[in-house]
Specification:
This protein is mainly alpha-helical. Helices cover about 50% and strands about 10% of the residues. It has three domains: about 50 residues; about 100 residues, no CATH class; about 70 residues, no CATH class. Helix 3 packs parallel to helix 8, helix 7 crosses helix 8 and helix 7 crosses helix 9. The chain is globular and about 50 Å long. About 15% of the residues are buried.
Length: about 240
Amino acid sequence: MSIFLAGVLRDYGANELHFTDIWSGVGPWKSVDVEDRARVIGIMTDLMGAYSFPIVHQTVSEDTFADHRDLRESLAGARAGDWKLDRIDQFGLLALCSNVSRHVLDLKAKGPADFDLPLPLFVDEGVLPAGRERPLPNWGTAIKGQRACFRSSSDLAGLQLADFAAFVITRSQWEVVKRKQRPAFTKAEAAILRAASVLNVLNLSIRSTTSRELGRATYEGWMQEDREAKGLTRRPSGCG
């Protein structure tokens, strides 16, 4: 990863990889042609595929709480140490800590010699500034020191792997919902869907499809099936 980042800095003047910027051609990537930007995304795709880093995907938003109104009401004014549970960003991070810890313990049980526990938890700056740490209310068996350590992605390359995974998952969903069913994928669609296909996401199901089938209606059908399986309405509240 360090060799890759050094090459990116040398060739493109970017000291870190923000894949939304790379895809859109903004910031240091504004003057970089599409083929070169696609090549950078392709290299990261190959890296993620080769190492198969385990990924846990989670989204928490107002839509989440619209599905669980009783939970939202119960969190009003609630605190866990310094964490404010009625703030979506902080509640979401703690929920992710819980989910990641569960998956880490499961992976450890399946491969006891694969890695040692507990593991340090590094979080991209945002909820707290880089350099800050905050104790967690639980999960000490999986998370070293039972604390979240906030860092800048420019200082910790591993956070850029997480940025790539988040970008690919989000962008691939966007590409699918706006595409019309047709015989072939565009270059952009093929690039992002190939990247999505190599991600080792532990808590998302794998779907097989074709360019003729894949589009908004197909994707929304999958989402509705998933919501029903979880005991939710087929569509979120307020979506008709």
